[in-house]
Design brief:
With 322 residues, this protein is of the alpha/beta class. Helix content is 38%, strand content 14%. The protein contains nine helices and seven strands.
Amino acid sequence: MAEELQEMYAEHTGKVSDKWSLYLGKYNSVFNSYKDKPIRLLEIGIQNGGSLEVWSRFFPNARKIVGCDINQECALLEYDDPRIVVIVGDANTKETQTDVLEQSPVFDLIIDDGSHRSGDILRSFSRYFPILEDGGIFVVEDLHCSYWQEYEGGLFYPFSSITFFKRIVDILNHEHWGANKINTAILSGFFRKYQFEISDEILQHIHSVEFINSMCIIKKRVPDLNKLGARFIAGTIETVVSGMTGLHSSQALTPTQINNVWTVRDIPPDEELADRLADLAVRDKQIDTLNKAITELQSSLSWRITRPFRIAANRIRSMKSR
């Protein structure tokens, strides 16, 4: 029986690796079919570098295992396994990406365990998903950070990384929208916010999006394998609903949604709400400034109006005291 990833971590004594226990079980099942293949793996964010040692053991026939980290101290990491290479630099720069591509022009498995900031996660996805082989897997770890303000997130924040990957689920079902919109239409807000792009052509290669606690797993396949395809009817006896056999090999029909207000919107409602709330915050600040100005003006006017009376009263008191 093949050794499981959990066992490898339990026995590991080399460089430190930090993974949540839930991840180990999921990786074991998701990566199992790649275990004996000559895969090429890229991990963004390696910290002490222990995961690369474990991956080299889990994938004994791997051709290349590349780790990338922005921490300059990672240059001190050394490995006996010649398949393991560490690249020091910001994965979201052209220079570092060039260094990565020199090790392998494409990868079969990519793991993002980098900064966990929404902007970095989405820029990394747009930069490295295109070089993932069809049939490969892209994994984003530690998405719980997407719920924290410190990592460009929040439970209802429309531009968090978790919101982005939720929206990718809609792209999987693009052929059923019933509207003349390209895939990228619902991601334009993210493109503007974090200054990146993903082409419609690349998005068509997304086969599935799976979420577990704090992790998202995206599988890549050729576009034809991502469509709903023809209807497949089996059997000949139609006791309850008749006419079904005649639908064999038919295509799905999507009713037009040009009058559906929840489909024809230019931007998603949560992004529009964010814009409106931002506008209201600016107006509230302007109103607060105007209220302060009015209060100061009223105080000044009150002082000017009552000044003659105060002077007269002082004179009367002065005359009485003589």
